[in-house]
Design a protein that fits this description.
With about 625 residues, this protein is of the alpha+beta class. It is built from 21 helices and 24 strands.
């Protein structure tokens, strides 16, 4: 009996222990659950609330319309137009292949090409894939009536960039393109979205932060099946600011028309302040193509085109030819070699120097030549003689004072500095001394010398205004959409070039005579005074095994009534003679500036002087070397 009681007591104690530990375990589990619940409901309340909200509310970027770009005479040359875009929302796209099959039927496009386009775009997209731009009204209607069966398919109306004048403004305005991953990572903190288009070149790139605007945001409810419901929140976008250029539209279009079938560039400046009046480079491409897309093989053809349509020739470096002779003339005057306008030499058509024979373009010679006639007739022998007597470092210094060999201030990222060679440059570059014959060659704008058309226009600008070397600028002002002027560009004088006023005047007399009765007759404009200098520059073509000389045609000039009002530089690649090819273009540009009728057809021009490229006999390759088309160091 006692044993039974003890056994029962032990069982009771064991059950009590089990009950205790069971309750303790239950308490611990409840405690853990309570702590977890507290953590989720209190500590992480904001996190999970936002996450829940994100799953039920979709947020879309509303792209801000870019600011417009307007010329000084009020013509809008870059604007926006409404465009329907088709996106696929990757987060809500349940069966992408099924959706693509449906879209191929709706859009009447091949499924294979649509699928390929989707997967290519998906590689560079973040959240949404742009499947097709510029949907037609009919395509939009067919998609919208089937919206219920197309989860993840979104049609949006966006302000798309549009360039009304196409390739005429490409090298000035640049273009906009889809932001890439690297750009997005750098700019996302500045309000950019993965779907934004940003300025890639030219004015569009330079003033991106003003043109961009501020994106808006749209919040829409979405159900469990991914279907969009009512709008629950909207922040309107703020349009970008408008850029007003110094460029005159009539001059820009005229330059484009004159260069349309050529390879070259025309730039025009105001000598009063360095304002850019026109900049055209040809060949060119339509900047709208970067938005609507290139057809198959089209982009490959562009980048492999030997004419290089993507190259802005206004800021590339070329040998200047005889347009450089005005620098040689001023250096000769300053050095005391040219002792006045009447200091003369005899030109028999050649100039012997050591073992070399430097020939004038005029084989029979110019006879006795003073400064004015030497500039007007572009007598090479006159400048050879200066080159034989002057130090290269002195000549280089004068060239640099006029802005050659340095950036112009326009701030285009791909602008070249060109090359003004001197003794130290050659020693550093080739580990060789400078030879006197090389200075003779440089004196007529050949040899190692390289300048950009914009630099040459700027140098002549300083001649036209009495020595004021301004930085080139294209921005006149920044305006808000309400017309308020937010910023206005100010003059930027780089330096005042100190040169004897008589030297300026003597050179100007020569430049005036170039157009009146010299090599630049084709640039004459009735009732307007034109000062200018032709040039025909040799270029060694490195693309050919032969040493064939292909000539670039130059004409750099300025025009006005009592005082110069416009400066221009015209370069036609492989055009031949500057007097025959480049000078007429400048003349037509000035006629447009002064609103005069066009000149007579070329066949009706009775008198024309064609400047030829001189030959140099016996000059070895190390002393007469050009480094190919558009090269620079």
């Amino acid at each position: 009996m006692f044993d039974k009681w003890q056994k029962k007591e032990r069982l009771d104690e064991e059950w009590e222990k089990r009950f205790f530990y069971g309750n303790l375990l239950l308490f611990i589990i409840l405690g853990i659950l309570w702590i977890r619940l507290f953590y989720l409901q209190v500590v992480k309340h904001s996190y999970y609330l936002n996450k829940a909200k994100m799953r039920s509310i979709v947020s879309y970027v509303i792209k801000a319309p870019r600011g417009e770009i307007i010329t000084a005479d009020g013509v809008v040359v870059a604007t926006n137009r409404a465009s329907f875009q088709l996106y696929l929302d990757l987060e809500n796209l349940r069966d992408e292949e099924e959706i693509l099959k449906k879209l191929s039927l709706i859009l009447k496009e091949d499924y294979g090409s649509l699928k390929e386009r989707f997967y290519l775009a998906k590689k560079v997209s973040y959240g949404r894939v742009l499947l097709k731009r510029n949907l037609t009204w009919d395509e939009v209607a067919r998609i919208m009536v089937r919206q219920y069966y197309l989860p993840g398919v979104i049609v949006e109306v966006e302000a798309e960039r549009f360039y009304p004048y196409g390739e005429a403004y490409f090298h000035l305005l640049g273009y906009v393109g889809r932001i890439n991953k690297e750009e997005y990572e750098n700019l996302k903190n500045w309000g950019y979205s993965p779907e934004d288009f940003i300025g890639k070149k030219g004015i569009e790139r330079l003033y991106e932060r003003y043109l961009k605007g501020v994106n808006g945001r749209l919040e829409i409810e979405r159900d469990a099946y991914g279907r969009l419901g009512k709008v629950v929140g909207r922040t309107s976008p703020i349009p970008g600011e408008d850029i007003v250029l110094t460029v005159r539209h009539d001059l820009q279009m005229k330059a484009y028309e004159l260069l349309k079938d050529k390879r070259g560039t025309v730039v025009a400046l105001s000598p009063k302040d360095g304002a850019l009046l026109a900049l055209v480079s040809m060949p060119s491409i339509d900047p709208n193509k970067f938005i609507i897309g290139f057809e198959e093989g089209e982009w490959s053809n562009i980048i492999n085109d030997p004419k290089r349509p993507l190259l802005n020739r206004a800021i590339q470096a070329y040998p200047p030819g005889s347009t450089f002779k005005i620098i040689t003339a001023l250096a000769g005057l300053e050095a005391g070699i040219v002792k006045g306008p009447n200091w003369s030499v005899y030109c028999p058509g050649y100039f012997p120097f050591g073992s070399h024979i430097f020939r004038c373009w005029e084989r029979k010679g110019h006879g006795t030549v003073g400064l004015k006639k030497a500039i007007a007739q572009s007598c090479d022998v006159y400048f050879y003689i200066i080159g034989a007597k002057i130090e290269i470092d002195f000549l280089a210094n004068v060239a640099r004072r006029f802005g050659l060999g340095s950036l112009t201030g326009i701030n285009f990222p791909d602008e070249k500095e060109g090359l003004i060679p001197d003794r130290s440059w050659k020693q550093k570059r080739f580990k060789l001394p400078w030879y006197p014959g090389e200075t003779v060659n440089i004196s007529i704008g050949q040899g190692y010398l390289l300048v950009t058309p914009l630099q040459m226009a700027r140098a002549y600008m300083a001649l036209a205004n009495g020595g004021y070397l301004y930085k080139i600028y294209a921005l006149k002002g920044i305006h808000s959409k309400k017309g308020k002027i937010l910023y206005q560009e100010k003059l930027s004088l780089e330096r005042k070039i100190e040169v004897n006023e008589n030297f300026y005047q003597w050179v100007l007399d020569g430049l005036k005579s170039v157009v009146e009765d010299g090599t630049g007759k084709a640039a004459r404009v009735p009732g307007i005074t034109v000062w200018g200098k032709t040039g025909t520059a040799q270029v060694v073509s490195l693309r050919k095994k032969t040493k064939l000389m292909e000539h670039h045609a130059w004409f750099v000039s300025f025009a006005g009534n009592s005082t110069p009002e416009i400066v221009s530089a015209v370069l036609v690649e492989h055009g031949g003679s500057g007097g025959a090819v480049a000078a007429p273009i400048a003349g037509e540009l000035y006629r447009t500036y002064y609103k005069l009728p066009p000149a007579l057809p070329k066949s009706e021009v009775k008198e024309e002087i064609i400047e030829e490229v001189p030959e140099i006999e016996g000059l070895n390759n190390s002393e007469n070397q050009n480094y190919g088309e558009n090269s620079t160091f």
